[in-house]
């Protein structure tokens, strides 16, 4: 194992209210749930924990409220070995997410940003030293976009790989202002970011669009199907995932992103980092919530070995 450099995560912290239903409600429909669970979440924190469990030191840049949820969250992150000294506490409530999952593992989510909406470009710029010395910078779109742009700009200037998971997709994001080394999307997000589904078009058109967006590698996760990589090469790279029967898919994408960032920061090749990320995402679906079921490095490596033996 190559010594892991730190991962700088610029992102959100939420409290997740989690219910299970037989089937997701249609517009105007009311459905009943017989359970309510409360978990810590937020794409930023989920991905930070996933990266930390892969052995990376984490520099977390974000905001929580001065409520009890915020205070408890900082303590729990510290237990995970995550540096919370760069997380600011602001007046108001910590971000909140309302998550409903059906019997097949599909989910729907409503988010109230709370303290996450207060993260500024200036706060991120104040962390230039930490970002410039990291092995990778990881950002999502549950915080104000100027903060993500500033983090990527600092990383670009210091040749630090930039990993962006544009979720939820924001059509106003100024892709041309930064260079994105790895863009992590699911099938739906791929179409929203590019303006078309990449698998429906000629590869030359996909490459042209990536050039316009200043994206080096487009990585598309597809649930239980192979993960696809589009870049400046002449072929699409396909990376198999781990076959599982999912219980809850809500944390899979974040586990994938965090694991991938940690593996890239430690110097692993793209294909190897993706294989590990596929395993981390799949294993996370075997438990409830976005953080508790996220596997550590040893467990991911064990399943990687089984995956390579069966392929």
How would you explain this protein's 3D organization?
There is one protein chain. By secondary structure, this protein is α/β, with parallel strands linked by helices. It has a single domain, classed as Ribokinase (UDP-N-acetylmuramoyl-L-alanine:D-glutamate ligase), CATH 3.40.1190. It has ten helices and 13 strands. It has helices spanning 43-53, 68-79, 121-125, 128-132, 145-157, 187-194, 203-213, 252-265, 270-284, 297-310; strands at 7-10, 14-20, 37-41, 58-65, 87-90, 95-101, 107-112, 136-140, 162-165, 180-186, 215-222, 225-230, 237-239. A nine-stranded mixed sheet has the order 5-4-1-8-9-10-11-12-13, with helices on both faces. Strands 3-2-6-7 form a four-stranded mixed sheet. A hairpin with a 6-residue loop joins β12 (225-230) and β13 (237-239). α1 (43-53) packs across α8 and α9 (270-284) crosses α10 (297-310). The chain is globular, with a radius of gyration of 18 Å. The two termini are 23 Å apart.
């Amino acid at each position: 194992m190559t010594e892991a450099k730190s991962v700088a995560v610029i992102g959100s912290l939420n409290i997740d209210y989690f219910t299970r239903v037989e089937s997701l409600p249609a517009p105007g429909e009311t459905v009943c749930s017989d359970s309510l669970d409360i978990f810590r979440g937020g794409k930023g924190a989920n991905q930070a924990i996933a990266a930390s469990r892969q052995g990376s030191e984490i520099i977390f840049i974000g905001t929580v409220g001065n409520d009890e949820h915020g205070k408890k969250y900082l303590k729990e992150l510290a237990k995970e070995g995550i540096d919370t000294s760069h997380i600011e506490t602001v007046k108001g409530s910590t971000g909140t997410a309302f998550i409903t999952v059906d019997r097949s593992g599909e989910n729907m989510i409503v988010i109230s940003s709370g303290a996450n909406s207060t993260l500024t470009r200036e706060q991120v710029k104040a962390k230039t030293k930490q970002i410039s010395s990291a092995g990778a910078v990881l950002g999502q779109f549950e915080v104000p976009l100027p903060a993500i742009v500033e983090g990527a700009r600092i990383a670009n200037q210091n040749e630090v790989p930039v990993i962006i998971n544009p979720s939820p997709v924001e059509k106003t994001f100024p892709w041309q202002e930064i260079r994105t080394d790895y863009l992590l999307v699911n099938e739906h997000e791929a179409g929203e970011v590019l303006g078309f589904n990449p698998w429906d078009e000629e590869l030359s058109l996909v490459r042209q669009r990536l050039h316009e967006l200043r994206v080096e590698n487009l990585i598309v996760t597809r649930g239980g199907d192979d993960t696809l990589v589009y870049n400046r090469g002449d072929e699409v790279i396909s990376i198999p995932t781990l076959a599982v029967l999912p219980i809850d898919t809500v944390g899979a994408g974040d586990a994938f992103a965090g694991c991938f960032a940690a593996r890239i920061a430690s110097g692993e090749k793209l294909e190897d980092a993706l294989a590990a990320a596929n395993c981390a995402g799949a294993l996370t679906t075997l438990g409830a919530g976005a953080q508790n079921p996220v596997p550590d490095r040893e467990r991911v490596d064990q399943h990687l070995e089984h995956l390579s033996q069966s392929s």
